[in-house]
């Protein structure tokens, strides 16, 4: 079973309970991050910003890796804990949280048990510390193992239906790093120079773990990081030939860059000014241009119509579960319903801004039917079927003409994020 590469944070065991020891501070941050995700429903990014901001970069990376692996394997870690306790621990009890992160380090990050104990047990006191020590020792003596792939929470498995097993298989593996090349004619050159593989023109796949900013071509903006699935929506609009495109909900701007590079005259709109700043920085780095608009798409009114609109709508982002395993535990029916309602409103508005004969691509990085397959029927545009020739080998359009990707696709080359994409014509 492939394991994530371990960040170079301090794995050595502190010899006392001194809370200032760096190894202990990283584990404390993990505990706060797990609490943020599991108790307060925060994203892992948000929880990390709150809990780990004072840590040195290597310790912060270590804390992120431990929290990610804990959340990815939570169901299996809990089963191990329950198999070694006579009285089940409450779901969010501190002793359970500490045992979860201890087991994730030992079983997923290959941290030696003595280091796990030295940095885990000081998070507890008294009887709880003795209990955690007992459970961890029982499991290391067995020795306990994890299954080949993480077990998905029941509600998630039910929602993802017959794709669930393949997605769980992909969750066990660290996802690769995909890049989109600004000038597609340079794909071969950059693929060779960066030592990657290309699955489509303009696409390069590298093994995970590269320091992106140090790679050749980054500073000159010859490419940007973008999962291959995330690159499909803009590709489906084809060459722009200076026609007008609206990238609605555009930040941090991967699709704005693509549309600009494909020759569209792009208006790039997002409601969050700080996120729009990132679009600006990305445009600057890549030498591409777009008109930036900081506005709420629910109230904004354009001055004219667009030949193309890309609506990469806000969503539950469950399709990014490989990199954000918090979505396995945070997202429930109420989030999906709320997002689906927002997406329907955005789609409805966007449809009115399309010039006659114009094209609208609707996309979400969600694996949920309500946010994907159920959406386009609510507006009066016709589907412009996506063809297999427009997709990477191994990904086929559905008979309805749309595309549903998920992490279990392209299993031999590293998978892809989960997206729903449909192309509609006015
Ligand atoms: C899935 S992300 C977009 C990713 C982006 N298309 C890319 O490729 O980099 C969704 C974006 O929608 C924005 N958003 C959410 N509600 C919005 C609204 N009412 N109006 C405009 N933008 C909105 C968020 O700020 C977020 O940046």
Automatic annotation (TrEMBL):
CDD domains membership: AdoMet_MTases (cd02440)
Family: Belongs to the class I-like SAM-binding methyltransferase superfamily. RsmB/NOP family.
Region called Disordered, residue ranges: 1-23
Molecular function terms, GO-annotated: RNA binding; RNA methyltransferase activity
All copies of domain SAM-dependent MTase RsmB/NOP-type, residue ranges: 146-426
Pfam family, one: Methyltr_RsmB-F
Coiled coil: none
Record key words, sorted: Methyltransferase, RNA-binding, S-adenosyl-L-methionine, Transferase
Ligand binding (S-adenosyl-L-methionine): 249-255, 270, 296, 312
UniProt protein name: 16S rRNA (Cytosine(967)-C(5))-methyltransferase
Claim: Transferase is one of the keywords in the record: yes
EC number: 2.1.1.176
Residues annotated as catalytic: 365 (nucleophile)
GO biological process: regulation of DNA-templated transcription; RNA methylation
Highest taxon, organism lineage: Bacteria
SUPFAM superfamilies linked: NusB-like, S-adenosyl-L-methionine-dependent methyltransferases
Source organism: Alteripontixanthobacter maritimus
């Amino acid at each position: 079973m492939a394991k994530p590469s371990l960040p170079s944070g301090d794995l050595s065991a502190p010899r006392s309970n001194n809370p200032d020891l760096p190894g202990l501070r990283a584990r404390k941050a993990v505990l706060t991050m797990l609490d943020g995700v599991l108790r307060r429903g925060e994203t892992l990014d948000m929880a990390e910003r709150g809990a780990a901001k004072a840590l040195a970069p290597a310790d912060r990376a270590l804390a992120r890796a431990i929290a990610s692996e804990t959340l990815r394997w939570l169901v299996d870690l809990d089963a191990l804990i329950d198999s070694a306790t006579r009285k089940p621990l409450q779901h969010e009890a501190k002793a359970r949280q500490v045992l979860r992160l201890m087991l994730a380090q030992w079983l997923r990050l290959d941290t030696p048990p003595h280091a796990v104990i030295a940095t885990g047990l000081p998070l507890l006191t008294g009887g709880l510390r003795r209990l955690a020590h007992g459970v961890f020792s029982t499991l290391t003596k067995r020795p306990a193992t994890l299954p080949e792939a993480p077990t998905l929470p029941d509600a998630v498995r039910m929602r993802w239906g017959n794709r669930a097993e393949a997605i769980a298989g992909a969750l066990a593996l660290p996802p690769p790093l995909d890049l989109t090349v600004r000038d597609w004619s340079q794909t071969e050159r950059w693929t060779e120079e960066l030592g990657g593989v290309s699955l489509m023109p303009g696409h390069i796949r590298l093994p995970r773990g590269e320091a992106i900013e140090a790679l050749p071509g980054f500073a000159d903006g010859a490419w940007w990081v973008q999962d291959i699935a995330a690159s499909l929506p803009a590709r489906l609009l084809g060459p722009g030939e200076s026609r007008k495109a609206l990238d609605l909900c555009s930040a941090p701007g991967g699709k704005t860059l693509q549309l600009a590079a494909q020759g569209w005259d792009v208006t790039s709109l997002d409601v969050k000014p700080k996120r729009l700043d990132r679009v600006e920085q990305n445009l600057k780095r890549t030498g591409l241009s777009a008109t930036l608009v900081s506005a709420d798409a629910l109230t904004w009114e354009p001055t004219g119509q667009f030949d193309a609109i890309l609506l990469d709508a806000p969503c539950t982002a469950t399709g990014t579960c490989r990199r954000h395993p918090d979505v396995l535990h945070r997202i429930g029916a109420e989030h999906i319903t709320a997002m689906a309602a927002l997406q329907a409103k955005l789609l409805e508005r966007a449809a009115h801004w399309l010039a006659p004969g114009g094209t609208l691509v609707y996309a979400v990085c969600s694996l949920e039917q309500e946010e994907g397959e159920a959406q386009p029927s609510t507006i009066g545009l016709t589907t412009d079927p996506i063809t297999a020739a427009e997709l990477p080998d191994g990904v086929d359009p559905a008979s309805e003409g749309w595309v549903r990707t998920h992490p279990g696709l392209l299993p031999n080359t590293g998978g892809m994020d989960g997206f729903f994409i449909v192309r509609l014509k006015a």
